[in-house]
Write a structure and sequence with these properties.
By secondary structure, the chain is mainly alpha-helical. Helix content is 59%, strand content 10%.
């Protein structure tokens, strides 16, 4: 999300962004095949969600992880919040969402947000090896187990999506959003 553009969003644009995030992140989270994340840089705000949707997460030491929405003056939309709630410990959920400060790869490894740290030169090769290991698993069984693990969060996401489609759009921004965005982009 480009804050230089977002600061000018009207209600239809706000609604469209939330709907698009809901669809994209919901599709990644409910993707029935293995999804492996290889992170070498910043996975901040919306950039953290592909990582949270992944089944296995590999990172280099230079990577950082965070949810900066509070600094931008927006709350997490429902779908991303449910993904964060399902994939982060209560401690990390509180720390990342309420403070908006990124954590290092070491801290992310220690908290279970990522599964492995590797050298930058090894990242993609290692991710391919891990993906090959996952590809050897029986695919139908894997999909069923993955959906069992994520079923409650997916059900809440789907219920909210149905509700959003049946009701009028509500603003994503609040009175603090535009000033907070301007502060970050100046």
């Amino acid at each position: 999300l480009n804050l230089k553009d977002a600061v000018h969003f009207d209600l239809p644009a706000q609604t469209a962004v939330v709907d698009e995030m809901d669809q994209a992140f919901g599709a990644l989270f409910s993707f029935r095949k293995p999804l492996i994340a290889a992170v070498s840089g910043a996975a901040i705000a919306g950039g953290l969600f592909p990582v949270l949707c992944a089944d296995y997460r590999i990172s280099t030491a230079k990577a950082t992880f965070g949810l900066a929405e509070v600094k931008v003056g927006v709350a997490l939309p429902f779908c991303p919040m449910e993904i964060a709630r399902a994939e982060l410990s209560p401690y990390d959920l509180r720390r990342l969402t309420q403070r908006g400060v990124a954590i290092s790869a070491d801290k992310a490894l220690g908290s279970g947000l990522i599964d492995e740290l590797v050298e930058p030169s090894e990242l993609l090769g290692h991710a391919h090896r891990v993906a090959a290991e996952y590809a050897e698993l029986p695919p139908q069984t894997y999909a069923e187990i993955k959906m069992q693990v994520r079923a409650e969060a997916i059900a809440r996401i789907e219920k909210n999506r149905t509700h959003r489609q049946a009701t009028r759009a509500s603003a994503w921004f609040n009175p603090e959003t535009r000033p907070a965005m301007r502060k970050l982009i100046e």
